[in-house]
Design goal:
- The complex is a heterodimer.
- Chain A folds into 2 domains: about 10-120, NAD(P)-binding Rossmann-like Domain (Rossmann fold, 3-Layer(aba) Sandwich), CATH 3.40.50; about 130-295, Rossmann fold, CATH 3.40.50.261.
- In chain A, the strands form 2 sheets. Chain A has a 7-stranded mixed β-sheet, sandwiched between helices.
- In chain A, helix 3 (about 75-85) runs parallel beside helix 4, helix 5 crosses helix 10 (about 280-295) and helix 6 (about 190-200) packs parallel to helix 7 (about 215-225).
- The longest helix of chain A has 15 residues, at about 280-295.
- Chain A has helices spanning about 20-30, 55-65, 75-85, 105-115, 160-170, 190-200, 215-225, 250-255, 260-270, 280-295, and strands spanning about 10-15, 35-40, 45-50, 50-55, 70, 95, 120, 130, 135-140, 145-155, 175-180, 205-210, 230-235, 275.
- In chain A, about 40% of the residues lie in helices and about 20% in strands.
- Chain A is built from 10 helices and 14 strands.
- Chain B is α+β, with helices and mostly antiparallel strands.
- Chain B folds into 3 domains: about 20-90, ATP-grasp fold, A domain (Dna Ligase, domain 1, 2-Layer Sandwich); about 95-225, D-amino Acid Aminotransferase, Chain A, domain 1 (2-Layer Sandwich), CATH 3.30.470; about 230-375, Rossmann fold, CATH 3.40.50.261.
- In chain B, a hairpin with a 2-residue loop joins strand 4 (about 80) and strand 5 (about 85).
- Classes of the chains: A alpha/beta, B alpha+beta.
- The interface between A and B is large, with 65 and 64 residues.
């Protein structure tokens, strides 16, 4: 098992005919992902590298049985693209890679989907996700991954790769690695992903990569304390980041915390998470927690 | 992007949020003309992006143009918590019957808009929130629907604003919320929002943070940047689409992805050094981007060594390495480079690096090793 994507994933890429969509869509296919369709309005009926192109997502779903949509649409049109995918019956997961979508658009899209189809949305502004050996949807380099028992969830892109790399170097494979993205309104949060890792029998331990800003790590810590039976290893980036020019006070009043790396590390540690302060120590920390796991049994 | 008060008020006026009439001034002569044009009693306000300017003497009343010019000459050039005053906002003085606080922002945890309204405006609102939380009315707004009439009234009554003028306050809140949405703001905060002697509601201050991701909808917002004094190296980096922030140390950092770059800064600090900058070349950086990034750092005299940390996803390590080698050849780099690469095409990149490895180009196998080598070369730690 894995979470969100596996051998049953049938992928439609919105913007497959653009340069980014094409590069990564076909890279995913080369990895083994079942890429069944592309959508570009106006190019329906054509074919790209053996993949049929449709004018709309619903036509693509009807013709090919696509069940997962990946969005590579430019920021000005991305919100609309996500809504289109959410409206298409049969789409059970949307992965939005697009970076630079206005926060107001993200807030409207997220809430609208929650009130209508409730289709899970990963991203926007994320590297996507990969279940090694099964399916890659997004821009994660498949070569650095290996199949195994560690779930990875992260707000950062390249830092996710770094974490996967450290695990693979130590022979610790991954069940699924999910990049939830660093935008203010992520479609999927740490908590959503942790919930799925907890329920996934193949996942034995979880690596959580956070960064400064917001309160997602603090919410993850509360969830872990109450609900997670599996060991969690954490890393938070941004201890030495310059404090942003914070003008208004509303943000601090809402979160009740400063959103600093130190506060996040403390919250995670209080929830029983092993937090390393050097990403190159992630592999070792996971190996250590998993050793204890086996010796307990 | 955080705006100055005068820029926020200019936007407010444009979308129908009521503000006192005012003019921007950068010299005492301009301050005199502004006061003359506005007529009557005016307020001379320092334009700095830091709180507490009133206490620091950055806000003064003036009766007429001569006094306004005198106050302007005192305030211009003043240092308020490290911010030098280059601009003034001269506006008609308002008769204040009550001071409120109002803000609209995104509650990231709830994923909804959040309104905060209080009858205790004109003071430190974080202190109000901490000491008397009941004085701060909070209400979540569904971004799909927007702030409704009943919610605006609810906020007015719950916050304890003056009941006789409740309709006007509610209308003011709605127009502020409309500004927040239509101008694509991350934050709109007004403290104080005042009730005047005549029963009008006016925004006496404006803290507006614009979402630069939405500038494609508001192409004119780019021009607000001209008012900000930016570090010349930061300006150069922006022209090249590089995400650069100047810091205090001596280890130059170039990496791909904000998370990885932040992590590199942390690691440099952990092994006893300090970074001279944050520089994210972003996804898919090739030879040109890497050359461009290195060239930007040559303009920073505080750099003593540069650590390049790349994890290739979209980015191809061989292309990055090509750019590094090319830059080292043509730019006569004044400092050594420590290079760590992993991910897409890293094997080829390492072979390329090994061929040119020297005391000027130092390969490192891991992030940790790279940080240690860089800090040693910088003479820190």
């Amino acid at each position: 098992m894995a979470i969100f994507v596996d051998e049953s994933t049938r992928l439609v890429v919105q913007g497959l005919t653009g340069s980014q969509g094409r590069f990564h869509g076909f890279r995913n296919r080369a990895y083994g992902t079942n890429l069944v369709a592309g959508v570009t309005p106006g190019k329906g009926g054509t074919d790209l590298g053996g993949v049929p192109i449709f004018d709309t997502v619903s036509e693509a779903v009807e013709a090919t049985g696509a069940n997962t949509a990946m969005t590579f649409v430019p920021p000005a049109f991305a919100a609309d693209g996500i809504l289109e995918a959410a409206a298409a019956e049969g789409i059970r997961l949307i992965v939005a890679i697009t970076e630079g979508i206005p926060a107001q658009d993200e807030a409207r899209v997220y809430n609208y989907i929650q009130q209508t189809s409730r289709t899970p949305l990963i991203g926007p502004n994320c590297p996507g996700l990969i279940s090694p050996g099964k399916c890659n949807v997004g821009i994660t380099p498949g070569e650095i991954t290996m199949a195994g028992p560690v779930g990875v969830v992260s707000r950062s892109g390249t830092l996710t790769y770094q974490a996967i790399h450290e695990l693979t170097m130590r022979g610790l494979g991954q069940s699924t690695s999910v990049g939830i993205g660093g935008d203010p309104v992520p479609g999927t949060t740490f908590v959503d992903v942790l919930e799925r890792f907890e329920a996934d029998p193949e996942t034995k331990a979880v690596v959580l990569i956070g960064e400064i800003g917001g309160s997602a790590e603090e919410e993850a810590a509360d969830f872990i304390r109450e609900n997670l039976s599996k060991p969690v290893i954490g890393y938070v980036a941004g201890f030495t980041a310059p404090p942003g020019k914070k003008m208004g006070h509303a943000g601090a009043i809402i979160s009740g915390s400063s959103g600093t790396a130190a506060a996040k590390k403390e919250a995670l540690e209080n929830a029983g998470v092993t937090v390393v302060d050097d990403p190159t120590l992630i592999g070792e920390a996971v190996a250590d927690r998993m050793r204890h796991l086996t010796s307990d049994v | 992007m955080d705006l100055f008060e005068y820029q926020g008020k200019e936007l407010f006026a444009r979308v129908g949020v009521k503000v006192p009439r005012g003019r921007m001034a950068t010299t005492t002569a301009e301050a005199w003309s502004a006061a003359a044009e506005l007529g009557g009693r005016v307020v001379v306000k320092a334009q700095v992006q830091v709180g507490g300017r009133g206490k620091a003497g950055g806000i003064k009343l003036a009766e007429g143009p001569d006094e306004a010019a005198a106050r302007a000459s005192e305030i211009l050039g003043m240092d308020i918590k490290g911010h030098v005053v280059h601009r003034l906002w001269i506006e008609q003085a308002s008769e204040i019957a009550a001071e409120y606080y109002a803000s609209f922002t995104l509650d990231r945890a709830a994923k909804k808009h959040l309104a905060l309204v209080s009858a205790k405006g004109g003071m430190d609102i974080e202190a109000v929130a901490a000491e008397s939380p009941e004085a701060l009315a909070r209400l979540h707004i569904d971004p799909v629907i927007g702030l409704t009439n009943w919610q605006a009234s609810e906020l007015v009554y719950r916050a304890g604003l003056d009941r006789a003028t409740a309709r006007k306050s509610a209308a003011a809140l709605r127009s502020l919320y409309d500004a927040f949405v239509s101008l694509d703001c991350d934050l709109v905060e007004v403290n104080p929002l005042i009730l005047t002697g005549e029963g009008e509601i006016l925004a006496l201050d404006a803290k507006v943070t614009l979402d630069s991701n939405a500038f494609f909808r508001h192409p004119d917002f780019e021009s607000f940047r001209e008012a900000f004094t930016v570090d010349p190296i930061e300006a150069m980096a922006r022209e090249r689409d590089l995400n650069f922030i100047k810091l205090d140390g001596s280890v130059g950092i170039i990496g791909n992805g904000a998370g990885l770059v932040m992590s590199t800064l942390d690691l440099v600090s952990l092994v006893g050094g300090s970074a001279s900058n944050f520089l994210d070349v972003g996804g898919g950086a090739g030879e040109e981007t890497m050359k461009s990034a290195l060239e930007v750092l040559t303009h920073d005299p505080s750099v003593r060594v540069v650590l390049i940390n790349i994890f290739g996803g979209i980015t191809r390590c061989d292309q990055v390495t090509g750019g590094i080698i090319e830059a080292a050849r043509i730019l006569d780099l004044p400092w050594p480079l420590v290079v760590r690469l992993d991910g897409t095409n890293a094997e080829q990149a390492r072979v390329m690096l090994a061929e040119v490895a020297s005391d000027r180009i130092v390969p490192a196998a891991t992030m940790r090793e790279a940080a240690e080598k860089a800090v040693a070369l910088a003479g820190e730690g």
